[in-house]
């Protein structure tokens, strides 16, 4: 639970957003296109300079163009937040959400005050395969009542679509909130929010953090078995997964989450969300932090999280 002292603030780096952001992005895109044309036609430089400009152009295009696919429960922040915490939930998890609201998550005006201190928390859900059905309507009613959701309008909510949900989530939150860290949590997790925030504060100057309860394990190659991996053959003769953060709770710094946003269309997914995210990190210069207090066991001890 959060301390009662409402004046406590969690350190984060202030960054004022440009009030003419849309105009600036447009001018930047036009400038970069002109630079690319000059380089290609003039033949002055190829290779690295062109690749760098193309990357910058992709980044510029990525800023501000996903907003139409989102349904938000707040206004855009103009400051660098410490963290955005997304709690993955589903249509049948109403009791889990209420349990979280009644324990470690702030609600109402307290949730907004927490945002002023640099922490945003939202339940994250997609849409029903049958748009506008009773599942969607119940979620819409809960949004109106609680105002604590991030709805991924382009994502179809289903257990087998969790790897795609990770793509939509990290792309969406980096578009909408400027934060040092983006956190994924399952809705059956109890989190000691104050202790967790203290960890993030200690890491806020690191640019490429991939943190969680790191693990690896056997790749299940027999169809029909639990945790079956259709792409098992890609993991070699030993059939062992690479090191990755376990799905219930993990953290990406802004640089890594932004990488997912920019490259979302070309990122491969596997049968499981945590394996998919781990595969996107493995080729990057990411700092892996194996934080055992984030292993979220069912035993309540010194861990920062536990399963509910």
Low-confidence stretches: 1-8, 11-24, 43-51, 60-77
| Structural class computed from helices and strand pairing | alpha/beta
In what range is the share of β-strand residues? Answer: 15-25%
N/C terminus separation = 15 Å
Portion of residues in helices? 25-40%
The general outline is globular
Count the E strands.
Answer: 10
Largest sheet: 8 strands, mixed
Gyration radius, rounded: 20 Å
- Put simply, the count of helices is 9
The topology string of helices and strands comes to HHEEHHEHEHEEHEEHHEE
- Placed side by side, the strands forming the largest sheet appear as 1-4-3-2-5-8-7-9
Mean pLDDT: 81
Summarize the structure.
The chain is an alpha/beta fold. It is built from nine helices and ten strands.
Give an overview in words:
The structure is a single chain. The protein is 36% helix and 20% strand. It is an alpha/beta fold. The longest helix is centred in the N-terminal third of the chain and has 22 residues, at 21-42. It is globular and about 55 Å long. The two termini are 15 Å apart.
């Amino acid at each position: 639970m959060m301390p009662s002292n409402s004046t406590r603030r969690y350190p984060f780096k202030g960054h004022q957003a440009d009030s003419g952001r849309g105009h600036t992005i447009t001018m930047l895109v036009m400038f970069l296109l002109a630079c690319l044309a000059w380089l290609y036609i003039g033949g002055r430089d190829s290779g690295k300079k062109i690749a760098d400009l193309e990357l910058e152009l992709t980044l510029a295009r990525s800023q501000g163009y996903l907003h139409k696919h989102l349904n938000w429960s707040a206004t855009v922040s103009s400051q660098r937040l410490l963290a955005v915490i997304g709690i993955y939930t589903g249509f049948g998890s109403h009791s889990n959400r209420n349990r979280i609201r009644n324990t470690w998550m702030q609600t109402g005006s307290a949730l907004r005050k927490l945002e002023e201190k640099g922490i945003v928390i939202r339940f994250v859900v997609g849409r029903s395969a049958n748009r506008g059905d009773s599942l969607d309507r119940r979620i819409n009613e809960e949004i109106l009542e609680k105002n604590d959701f991030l709805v991924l309008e382009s994502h179809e909510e289903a257990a087998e679509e969790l790897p795609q949900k990770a793509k939509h989530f990290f792309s969406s939150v980096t578009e909408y909130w400027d934060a040092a860290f983006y956190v994924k949590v399952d809705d059956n997790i109890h989190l000691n929010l104050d202790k967790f925030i203290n960890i993030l504060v200690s890491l806020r100057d690191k640019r490429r953090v991939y943190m969680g309860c790191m693990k690896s394990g056997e790749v299940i190659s027999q169809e029909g078995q639990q945790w079956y991996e259709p792409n098992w053959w890609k993991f070699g003769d030993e059939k062992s997964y690479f090191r990755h953060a376990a799905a219930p709770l993990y953290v990406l710094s802004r640089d890594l989450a932004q990488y997912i946003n920019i490259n979302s269309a070309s990122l491969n997914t596997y049968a499981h969300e945590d394996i998919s995210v781990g595969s996107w990190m493995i080729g990057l210069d990411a700092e892996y932090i194996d934080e055992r207090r984030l292993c979220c066991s069912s035993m309540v001890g010194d861990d920062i999280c536990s399963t509910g």
